[in-house]
Amino acid sequence: MKLAWPGIFSSIVASMLLTSTHVFSQEASGPESSTDALQQVVRPFFERHCFGCHEGSDAEADLRLDTLADSPPVARDGEAWKKWNRVLQRVGSGEMPPKPLPRPDKVELDRVVAWLQKSMQTAAADSADPGKVTIRRLNRAEYANTVRDLLGVEFKADEQFPADDVGYGFDNIGDVLSLSPLLMEKYLAAADGISQEALDSLSRARWIAVEPKVGATLHDAVRDVLQPLLMRAYRRPVTEQEVDRLVRLAETVGVEDASFDESVRLALKAILVSPHFLFKVELGPNPDGSEEVRLLSEFELATRLSYFLWSTMPDEELFARASAGKLRADLDAQIDRMLDDSKRDALVKNFAGQWLELRNLSSVAPDGQLFPSFDDRLRNDMRTETEMFFAAILSEDRSVLEMIDADYSFVNGRLAKHYGIAGVDAGEEFRRVSLDGTPRGGIIMQASILTVTSNPTRTSPVKRGKWILENILGEPPPPPPADVPDLNEDEQAVLSGSLRQRMEQHRKDPRCAVCHVKMDAMGFAMENFDAVGAWRTKDGQFTIDPAGQFPDGQSFRGPAELKRILREGSKDQFARCLTEKMLTYALGRGIEPSDETAVNEIVESLAEQDYRFSALIKGIARSDPFQKQRRTRSSP
Amino acid sequence: MSRSKRITRRTALRGLGVTMALPWLEGMSRPESARAEAESKAPRRMAMFFVPNGMHMPDWTPQAEGPLDALPPILEPLEAHRSDLLVLSGLTLNGARALGDGPGDHARCVAAFLTGAHPRKTNGKDIRNGISVDQVAAKTVGQLTRFPSLELGCEPSAQSGNCDSGYSCVYTSNASWRTPTSPMAKETNPRAVFDRLFGRPPAPDIAQGGLQHDRLEKSLLDFVAEDARDLRGKLGTTDRRKLDEYLYAVRQIERRISTGEKVTQSAEIESKFPRPEGVPKEYAQHLSLMLDMAALAFWTDATRILTFMFTNAGSNRSYPEIDVRAGHHTLSHHGNDPAKQADISKINRYHASFLAKFLDRLGSFQEGDTTVLDRSMIVYGSGIGDGNRHNHNDLPILLAGGGDGTIKSGRHVRYEENTPLTDLYLSMLQRMGVATGSFSDSKGELSDLG
Fold first, then answer.
1. Closest chain A C-alpha to B364 CA, distance in angstroms
2. Is residue A274 located within the same domain as residue A409?
3. pLDDT per position as a tens digit, B24-59
4. Is residue A287 part of a domain?
5. Cβ contacts (< 8 Å) between A190 and chain B: which residues?
6. Distance to chain A for B339, nearest Cα, Å
7. pTM for this structure?
8. Cα distance between residue A399 and residue A387, in whole Å
9. Cα distance from B95 to chain A (closest Cα, Å)?
10. Higher pLDDT, B397 or B234
11. pLDDT in tens, B389-424
12. Which of A7, A110, A242, B431 lies 20 to 30 Å from A256, alpha-carbon distance?
């Protein structure tokens, strides 16, 4: 491993080259996006500033720029693409080359960054592809909501079914949702109970439109009920044969004096465990067709949209539009309608709950002796605040940037007391309050997030900084190198220095400093909030020092200024991060380099519309990955 | 036509409920289908217990090889079972090592713990692990019992966030894998386990309508299986895998209906194992109840194979009940700080005390002239050695139970460095009656077990 920095020599060479290299004076349309520019501009830049560490088989962070720079980025090569992306991110943000290396000249740096951006966009456009979403099973929340809307039966899936596994931060990823024998057993048992309840008088009117007429045959009566039910349950038109088959099953009940209810109930149970119900099947209007990429059918689009915004099946109006072939044409109006419906709360619970890691709040256990004010009620209050905050931005169609620095939030008496906000009456009821004159504002200063990112007995500036990098800035830090010595927490060390001093000592290893400079700066800015998010000015005997500086030189004196820097300096980054997270959730798969163009377009239209929440949702719904599907995916 | 004549069915809570586990108890008769086998050969059983974050090895490893004369501090709670224990030092889980994939030792140590495989590093796309040892055994002997295997634990799968360094949470939450792409979800609610094993006492009209119920359930399963086969034919490779999982699950349930064992719950079971209320809030109670359910499943011969995760990978749970107030994972990066190491040791010892109770239970179940414990092989340990180093060699592993007279317990054996943990699994598979000469990266049977 090379820890010897190229040092002063390279900076002298750099300044000599800078003035003499003609390619720097070219217009942006010049060779910047070509292979020529790679060899004449970018590679020499890497040689001067990066090869000291990132060359050869022992390159730092497994990033070999000498080989990477052999050819420009192509989105098809996922691994190389990720590396180019990292280069762009790190060089663009000023994190690389790290201190104490000299900063590259600004003109030279801007050229390299411009080349990187442009070549990546070109490459992305060349290989844009809607991709293939692996067939998705309904997860617990979707199952419960769907049963509610199909039959009017309340079913507590989260108590009855095993938890769904998470990939890319969400529990609705087709590749990760499996169907174990245990779960199938639960599906059958659930179908048994649900079908019984669905026939009770309270629910039956919801799905049995016409009770059997006197004199009708059992066959006809059953068929009349099952035909419309089947279409709604499978979320698509069904064939006569499908209905006939189901009616035949119903008739096998066949006991003497076979009742209508018993027959329908068996059919309903079969529907509830059928793969057509349990999976969101996307076969298209022409399953035998040969086209490799196709538009989703109107019904498939209705299903995607409905599970995206409501975590449930399409309602009558969506079905009607799809049936008329008008949903795609009416998309924006339908989205507006859907966002006006209270079912949008599913987006708060399921998207925000996972994006912000709010769901982890239920399993944190702050130490009872150190944080006696923390109990289950406060835990719920914290969750409610963040959910209401997110819901307000969604339902009032406000700018998503307010998530970073809004000057309002929602508290009840207990949470107001926890925050030290005066003038809020005691009581359980939440209300909107102004945060003017308080140090808080925005999601990252809400107690929920501050608690989820803490250890049981103390804050963790690293976890908090990492959380911001991952969930706000979309720059997940690479994992730490192996064999890093741990933070010294023995009594002697704790007595001799604050957490911050000890961590700064710890960070002297340049391999650590690269990522930790920014991560810890943000984490320490939040040190005024303790492990359950209450305000403090001291940590034990040490006065909190929340000031910090970013690698690109921007400095801040504390959380309020950090928030402003993030809002002003990183809004594009935040918009992109949120877009990628929400697109992942909407599609049920991870984001690939071939999605880059779609992401760019969504982010652009979001910015053009003042970052209004609805612009994000409409941009996603209109994007190719959401509207189209590749037939198959090659498997490794 | 009449709508008033409605059969009162059992509710969802009852589980499938059509069959009842038959306690393999003295003096009780077994159903015809299984009797011949049971009489010719008493059931052997295997259980695999995972505990997180490695172990404080100096307090785990016995001083000397050979007879277990004195137990190290972590194992002291198992004193009553000293003669039932075989402590196995020096075993290695190569699949959990980075092998070029960088960090993620916690995810890998759960994924590899029972598979020996090196899981593919992915957050979701193209998940791939190996087949776990319990599932290999279940393939052969699983058909002899109502449940081929049981997967239990105390923590549901992670609910959000990134679980470990770019590995999907599916790796951190699931130790049992039926195929390289199909994890076996675990049950974490003791009441749900109980209801799965027994259901609630059937209403009188159901008892007589049972056959009719089975017939309809079979028609229903035939119906949906046909749906699934038909759909499968129209899908691509990755989608087909999901339908394969579906079809496998349906077959398992069909099998259970057709072998239909119907036995009511005995007063003896009820007195020893009352139906749990739900998920207790306190970890200790939760863990105890889940272990009770595991013991109950063995006792009643509902299954002979089970896996049990004390927590998911890298758990940061604190244990205020034993005055360990920092998070376990945070502590495990102890930096050789003696205070932290002492806390880790306390947690390790605490966990072991629950294993002791489980062994007590199994030891109290008489089966012929021996006990369920004597007929079982129970692996307990972690896929990480020292939590600070994240090493996957010299793992903390013990084997409890006599394996039906095939294991010579009451000893500490140290193996040559880098002996695969999967050698132990191979030896266990052979004892379970699986005819195989290898498992995962095994090099051969583990020597010096019996």
1. 29
2. no
3. 443 333 334 444 444 446 799 999 999 999 999 999
4. no
5. 12
6. 8
7. 0.90
8. 16
9. 17
10. B397
11. 899 999 999 999 999 999 999 999 999 999 999 999
12. A242
Lowest pLDDT segment from A63-72, A475-484, B136-145: A475-484
DSSP annotation of A51:
T
Token representation of residue B418: 């880098």
End-to-end CA distance of chain B: 69
Shared domain check, A144 and A116: no
DSSP3 helix / strand / coil % (chain A, rounded to 5): 55, 5, 40
Q: Is A149 on the interface with B (CB under 8 A)?
A: no
Q: Does residue A353 lie within any of the structural domains?
A: yes
Instruction: Residue A472: name the closest of A557, A575, A394 by CA.
Output: A575
Looking at the structure, do residues A378 and A477 belong to the same domain, yes or no?
A: yes
Strands A136-137 and A279-280: antiparallel
Q: Which residues of B touch A370 (CB under 8 A)?
A: 325
Whole-number Å distance between alpha carbons of B354 and B291: 8
Does residue A631 surpass a pLDDT of 60? yes
A442: tokens are 């925005």
Task: Write the single-letter amino acid at B45.
Answer: R
Which amino acid, B10? R
> Residue A39: which residues within 8 A CB-CB, separation 6 or more?
none
Interface predicted TM-score (ipTM) of this complex, two decimals:
0.89
Burial of B387 (0-12, 13-18, 19+ CB in 10 A): buried
Which tokens go with A267?
């059919």
B217 inside 8 A of chain A by CB: yes
Spatial neighbors of A473 by CB under 8 A, at least 6 apart, are A566, A570, A573, A574, A577
DSSP string, A71-85: S---TTSHHHHHHHH
Cβ neighbours, 10 Å, residue B266? 14
Alpha carbon distance A415, B69 (integer Å): 57
Structural domain containing residue A205: 136-280
Tokens of A116: 């990187």
Cβ-defined contact of A181 to B159 (cutoff 8 Å) = no
Closest CA to A293 of A302, A304, A282: A282
What residue type is assigned to position A42 of the chain? V
CA distances from A613 to A55, A403, A474, A563 (A): 44, 11, 18, 20
Contacts of B104 by beta carbon, 8 Å cutoff, 6+ apart: A479, B98, B121, B164, B165, B166, B167
- The residue among A581, A555, A588 whose CA lies nearest residue A569 is A555
| One domain, residues A140 and A270 | yes
Cα–Cα distance for residue pair B257/A556, rounded to 1 Å: 68
Give the number of domains in chain A: 3
Tell me if A622 is assigned to some domain: no
Lowest mean pLDDT among A124-128, A442-446, B197-201, B274-278: B197-201
DSSP B123: S
Dist CA B210 CA B199 (whole Å): 14
Same domain assignment for residues A87 and A118: yes
Strands (E), A505-586: 538-539, 542-543, 548-549, 555-556
CA A153/CA B347 separation, integer angstroms: 44
Q: What are residue A280's DSSP bridge partners?
A: A136
Q: In B, which residues are within 8 Å of A491 by CB distance?
A: 339
Q: Which two tokens stand for residue B335?
A: 């930096």
